[in-house]
Write a structure and sequence with these properties.
Blueprint: H1 7-21, H2 25-54, H3 57-60, H4 68-72
């Protein structure tokens, strides 16, 4: 089991794609795939921006302070 995408494999896949879809249909398929990937990328960017806007620093950090009485009292046995 060698590399999956050797040059010979890619040539065979390209030949099969031309046989199945024809030379005229391949540019249309490529364009549709590119537009779909672009839309997916923009959608993911919008989701990430929404998540970052919803998370506030005060929501993620908790500050714990002790009472002055407890900090200065000596421990009792």
């Amino acid at each position: 089991m060698g590399d999956l995408f050797q040059p010979w494999h890619l040539i065979i896949l390209a030949g099969l794609a031309i046989l199945l879809f024809g030379g005229k249909k391949l540019p249309e398929l490529g364009k549709g795939l590119g537009e779909g990937l672009r839309g997916f990328k923009e959608g993911m960017k919008g989701i990430n921006d929404d998540v970052k806007a919803d998370v506030k620093p005060a929501d993620t950090a908790h500050n714990v302070t002790t009472k002055p009485d407890e900090a200065t009292k000596p421990p009792t046995a």
